[in-house]
Amino acid sequence: MAGVNPFRKGPKGDSGPAAGARPREETAPVPADPTALPTERTTGAPRERGRRASLAALAGPAGRAGGRLRLGIAAIADRLIATAPRIPVRDLATLRAQFPGLTPEELADKLVAGACAGTAAVGAGVGAAAMLPAPPAMPAELAAEITGVASVEIKLIAELHEVYGLRPAGNLRQRATACLTSWSEERGIDIAAPASLNIALGGQMRRELRQQIMKRTLRNLPNLMPFMIGAAVGAFMNRRATRRLAEKIRRDLRAKQVPWDALPTPDG
Predict the structure, then answer these.
(1) What is the chain's alpha carbon radius of gyration, rounded to the nearest angstrom?
(2) How far apart are CA 1 and CA 247, in angstroms?
(3) What's the rounded Cα separation, in Å, for the pair 151 and 204?
(4) Which of 18, 24, 57, 203 measures 20 to 30 Å from 253, CA to CA?
């Protein structure tokens, strides 16, 4: 019978396995390690452990998720850029006709209260939608909330500039883009600096817009909690965020406010 002669002497004359022969346990296939990475679960594959292996294991899924998030934020930014010129904004004459007898501060208070109610309603609607058994729709719901809230707040910013006598220069699209920049930076528009109005749709503006959307996305995640908790949280957080944004904008505008009687008449 072919095999290894256990009585054959080795190279130095010692009894034992034949020269060059190895024990069975050394030649048996190494079983797959259940804790190994997928690429290591074969015999002879290198075993990589520690920080390097952890990073390699996470890089794939995390990279794909990060790519999807960046694409989603870029899509929302493009949607806001396209939507901003179509947001209906009331001029000062219309606002004064709708709210007669109010001072600029009183009129601004009315506008802020209405915007807070609007963004709270958007947050409550998305929170209620989180009760539905449709998890794949949640990213779309979140994007819709950010777009809806941004539209209300951009309208508020444009009308606050009207109230404080600081309408941005340019045509409708240029004014809308200036208000979108104001929303991204959370500050009033400096109409005395034409250069600040000419960066519309530039790289810096788009980066700031994406950063603002990212911040809103992270802030709005609790709105997706089920059992109507998300509706209450969404309404509260959106109302608070809109009020804070309005306070920042109004603080900037008060420093450069133009009295109503100093504004040129529509005919002049």
Answers:
(1) 32
(2) 95
(3) 21
(4) 203
Identify the residue whose tokens are 């240029």.
174
The token duo for 185 is: 């930076």
The CA-based angle 235-240-242, given to 5 degrees, is 95
Which single residue is written with the structure tokens 């929170």?
127
DSSP letter for each residue of 91-115: -HHHHHHHSTT--HHHHHHHHHHHH
pTM (whole model) above 0.90: no
CA distances in angstroms from 163 to 78, 166, 241, 267, listed in the order given: 28, 8, 21, 19
Q: Do residues 83 and 158 lie in contact, with contact meaning Cβ atoms separated by under 8 Å? A: no
Amino acid making up residue 250: R
Taking the C-alpha atoms of residue 256 and residue 246, their distance in angstroms, rounded to an integer, is 16
Enter the DSSP assignment of 192.
Answer: T
Say what angle helices 229-254 and 104-129 make with each other, to 10 degrees: 150
Q: Which helix (H) or strand (E) is 59 found in, with range? A: helix 50-83
Q: Are 45 and 52 in contact (CB under 8 A)?
A: no
Length of the chain: 268
Residue located via tokens 């900037």: 252
DSSP 86: G
Asked whether 200 and 174 are in contact (CB, 8 A), the reply is yes
